[in-house]
Write a structure and sequence with these properties.
88 residues; alpha+beta; Alpha-Beta Plaits; 3 strands; 41% helix
Amino acid sequence: MIRQTRIKLVNAFSGGFNEAKMIQTILTESGIKATLENGFMASIAPWVVSPGGVSPVNVVVNDTDLEAALKLIEEFNNSSPEQPDDLS
């Protein structure tokens, strides 16, 4: 008997292409499979996939990974860029 597993994809993040790609990379490097939805279309006609072209790209993950993904996204959003020690 073949056992079938159903995967339910849920939206973990919506935003611009560059930010969504960074989020996808962070999740993937943390062991969470993440996929961009509307990535290509958002780059050529964002108003087609989102009203007004606002936040046209979605990062989707398996529903069982959503809690961990949201935690990583929150950490990313609350982090500040590293500053070089010597700016002179």
